[in-house]
């Protein structure tokens, strides 16, 4: 795979997503010109760049489509359900072709033919449009990347005896057309009246404006056999590197072309404001020449505007961002080390300089993180198609609502979130929402609803998938879990806990495996993916009312603000986002309870978890301890630590597969002195803490 | 291992107490001096903790504890052998503690004997083969990386860990000074 091909695939995938969106929106709003234009543009680019990158099959196929939508644009064809169906099917087809690098299997070929036939049937006079030109139109731009785009003005005036040598102006113009964006104005002023017209004499001449990556020599090559038989001028009129928006004025263009002398122009100008009109009225310049000049002005103007827009967005390969993030991470660690040295020197100047660095690096970090943030909406739009297609397949009536599409998440998180979300949504459609008859019997509205929402809370992103389907019966889950040996027959678990058993390995609620859900990926895989992202997943369900799945994910996987605390000789980091306050108390004010410790803070009882016991440290407790009060999942509790060291940016390092089974640690970080500190996962500790009943505290937290 | 029968095997030999062990040189990334370890709770005792290897957090295994032949105490000769292993689908970097690293030697493949059925100090499962040392009596135990460093082996012994840890909740940070006073 060459570089162009890769770039094309990337670009095409983005366009396909856009295309899918546009089609789905078009379904609701078939008259929207904006949508039709969007589809046309996407198709056009897929086709054009496809041909350039050598994806000829895709290009050829897409051409038909582009033609159809061009006609829709012109109002010759109306948007029908069938057209949208074909559109969506074509979108999928192109996606598959991209995957297979434009290799057509028999099946794909068949699909393409079928789609083309269906499409042609929609077009009343499709027969008039022969397919032959498509190949030609596309073949061109290959292998011409070495030049920047330039705009050429080509003046081509065949001599009178041009036809005598068997030359065809049309063929030459076609060649030019294939080189890039092409605008042509023909001059008919030399054409005599019919009586005096000699059929073998050439009277016409042309001005061609060509925006192309090819060089002037390439253009001259086109005329290589005819250059002696015609007047030919090829000039670069815009190098594409000038910044200003305004191109030359009409007068200037005409003077430059030699259509009018500067003096003549000067004489005529003061008469009226519009140069073109005056010149034409005065007969100084033929109408076509002015038209041609106007076209030139327009072409260059739009081209420059497009270029200016392009500056606003830059495409950067993801690995570069990764690298950048890693470097910022290293910088943060180096800074911590610098801070430590500065603190030990008690040099005010050094400390001030470090302070300055702190600010800058924090800003840099936030900036780098924000570059990596993406709106989750891009993932959401995928699901509209999934829901639409699956609902149709199963004869169910389902609508998907999405909220909070603008919620931002780290790119790496979003990338890995797609598959689990698809799985969960498929489950909702397949197992959750009932068929219309069943819904009617239950007295529910015929339309099933799936609500997909995302929002920020407490430094986390909460994603919910709610449906109003049949819900999940905890009793059934329990008996099934016993059948499958997931739990002991005499296990005593709450309804809520029973529902979570769905995520246990080897558990699948589907009675039979359909082609939709249960394709090998179980809910346990979903859960593991979410946990790998340092997130959590929970399921709530009310029978016949519906099911809600809640995913909680960290905003970023890379760097967080943390509070470093000391326990014995160990340093433990606690994410700052969950900390509410820190209180110093005497050890003897802690009372031991069944589940750990507790103490009274301003009159309320605060459950406490000893990190000393958690970290298996046996050394004596200090008289004064620090309580770090955190809030997780609307529950408040405190960690008991010996001492608070500092607040610091911490770079999260993954502990890898070996330590995956330790759920109370979310990762490790490297401190300024090069040692490793553990980052605590407060949510998991709380979960354990709540679960544990009986036994002594040390065991519960250890 | 990838070595075919006709090849010579290059191995790095190291000491665990008096016994000589070895790993295939191709599995080893580097050997570093022992450095400060951060112990993780809820792990088996042979998982001694993690180190910072140039910004990467690397788990370190105490082979003596894993083989149940004591516990590594830190001396000036103690090393960490850094190896790369595939765990599941991930390529993981691990460290193994050695009392001392000796030499890289070449052993003809046909001189490598299968592990003895009985009498080995180490579970024969973990042994790739036995090679002759400097003298007739000295055997080198060549370890089987694929069998030893699997996810199962590295996490399986959870139960042992818990029972062991409740009996002696020791802080690992004083390892460099104390000798192996407790029993495992």
Automatic annotation (TrEMBL), chain A:
SUPFAM superfamilies referenced in this protein's UniProt entry, alphabetically: ATPase domain of HSP90 chaperone/DNA topoisomerase II/histidine kinase, CheW-like, Histidine-containing phosphotransfer domain, HPT domain, Homodimeric domain of signal transducing histidine kinase
PROSITE patterns xrefs: CHEW, HIS_KIN, HPT
Keywords per UniProt: ATP-binding, Chemotaxis, Kinase, Nucleotide-binding, Phosphoprotein, Transferase, Two-component regulatory system
Limits of the CheW-like domain: 559-691
Histidine kinase domain location: 309-557
Keyword Phosphoprotein: yes
InterPro entries: Bact_Chemotaxis_CheA (IPR051315), CheA-like_dim (IPR004105), CheA-like_homodim_sf (IPR037006), CheW-like_dom_sf (IPR036061), CheW-lke_dom (IPR002545), HATPase_C_sf (IPR036890), HATPase_dom (IPR003594), His_kinase_dom (IPR005467)
Top-rank taxon: Bacteria
SMART domains linked to this entry: CheW, H-kinase_dim, HATPase_c, HPT
Pfam families per UniProt: CheW, H-kinase_dim, HATPase_c, Hpt
Catalytic activity: ATP + protein L-histidine = ADP + protein N-phospho-L-histidine
Role played: Involved in the transmission of sensory signals from the chemoreceptors to the flagellar motors. CheA is autophosphorylated; it can transfer its phosphate group to either CheB or CheY.
Name this protein carries in UniProt: Chemotaxis protein CheA
Organism listed in the record: Fluctibacter corallii
TrEMBL record, chain B:
SMART domains named among the record's database cross-references: CheW
Pfam families, per database record: CheW (PF01584)
Stretches with biased composition (Acidic residues): 172-184
Matching InterPro entries: CheW, CheW-like_dom_sf, CheW-lke_dom
Region described as Disordered: 163-184
Domain CheW-like: 8-154
Protein name: Chemotaxis protein CheW
